[in-house]
Amino acid sequence: MRLLEEILEYNKKFVENKDYKEYLTEDKYPAKKVVMVTCMDTRLVELATKSLNLSSGDVKVIKNAGAILSHPYGSILRSLIIAVYLLKAEEIIVMGHYDCGMQNIDTNSLIKEMWKRGVSDETFKILKYSGIDLKEWLQGFEDVKDSVKHDIDLIVNHPLIPKNVYVHGLVIDPDNGKVDLIENGYDRRLNDAKLNF
């Protein structure tokens, strides 16, 4: 049986048996008024929320490769802005993780793999002449803590993110769920208030 057939068969039984009931939430708004950006790493599918005692309905979760915010007006920041203004989120968590595949990524190998899997030389040329530097676009980071700090600064300094939104930075160990605090948004807000006093 192919994967799609397998998951659709499971879904049919899931609905028939009413297994969905344990995942129902009161509404679409995060109960704890928080949105989290984290990595798409399979080890974090449940660990990222369970390690923080966040359940279904507590948090909005946005995932991408490396939890990297690569553009101030890209889809991740758009999602954060929507979460803040339309979904009542008052806090943002950026959660990177140790042993991330985006750390020190070899973009040359990645581009060679694209070529092996059928991306033509013509496509690479078109991208280059269009001003797209694939190596830069695919680039990850050297240090996960620095990457999380970069994301926090991008969010905190974004002109569309209200100043009363707390932005926290965490790095999780995918082997045991231990979380290291990189930035406490409450402290940052307090320090900003003192500087502006």
UniProtKB/TrEMBL annotation:
The keyword rRNA-binding does not apply. This is carbonic anhydrase. It catalyses: hydrogencarbonate + H(+) = CO2 + H2O. It comes from the Bacteria. It comes from Gemelliphila palaticanis. Belongs to the beta-class carbonic anhydrase family. Keywords: Metal-binding, Zinc. Its cofactor is Zn(2+). Its EC number is 4.2.1.1. The keyword Metal-binding applies.
